[in-house]
Amino acid sequence: MRALATAWRGARLLAHLVVGLLMAVVVGLDFSRRLKPETLSGWWQRRLLRILQLRVQVEGTPLQGARLSVANHISWLDIPLLGACEDTRFVAKSDIRRWPAAGWLATAAGSFYIRRGRGGSRPLLDRLVPYLRNGGAVTIFPEGTTSDGTRTLPFHSRLLAAAQEAGCAVQPVAIEYGLAADGSRIAPFIGDDELFSHVLRILRQPQLRARVVYGTPLDPRLNRDELAQQARAQIDAALGLSSTPLVTVTPESLAA
Q: Which positions ≥6 away from 223 have C-beta within 8 Å?
C-alpha cells in the first residue's frame, strides 16, 4: 500500500511539474508584465506542499511591502515553503538558471541570480535595490549553503547591503523541519545528496512537518555585519539553538 501511495503522489508531482512549466511559458510570454510571478509561484508552491504532504506551522507575520527576508537554509524545500507563506522572490546561484525544469521555474518565479566569485554581488545589488525601492519583497539565504538544521552556519553580510541602499527592513525568518516517521532527519539536502533520490524519500513519508517563524524586523541603518549577526541570533533563538543576546528594534525605529 505504501508503494502505491508513493507512486500516486509521484504521478501527481509530475503532473504538477507540467503545470508549473506551462505557467513558466505563460509568464515568459507576458510581454506587458501584468502578471505577478511571485503570486503565481505562491499558488503553485502551496499545491506542491500539499502533494508532498508537508504540514506547515507559521509563527509571526511577514512584513507588508518592501522587505529583505533573511532565512536559514536547510533544503530545496525551503523555497516552496517560504514561497507558499508569502509573496516573495528569491536569490539563487546563477548555475540554477541553466538547470532543466528547476531553472525554468526559478526564472519564471522572478528569481534574482548571483554569480559565484569576487564581484558577483554588485551586479545583483544593482537589480535588487530598485526592486526593493518599488515595494518588492526578496528572500536570501545568507549561509550560502545548506545545513543539517541542528545549527546555523555563519551569515555572509554582503547582500544585506541591498536593504541598506533601499532603506527597507530586514526580517529574520527561521525554518525548522520535523523528523520522519522513523525519527530520522530527511528534510536536509546536504553534501552528496542527489535531488531525485531526495524527492523520492520525501514522497515515501506519510507526512512531514515544518515550522516557519517570522522574527522582529531589523533597522537597515545597522551596519551589514550587525544585521547579519542579529538576524542569525534571532533565528538561533527561535530554533532554540543559541542564547546570543538580541537587539530589540521597534517598528517606530524603522519609521524614524
A: none
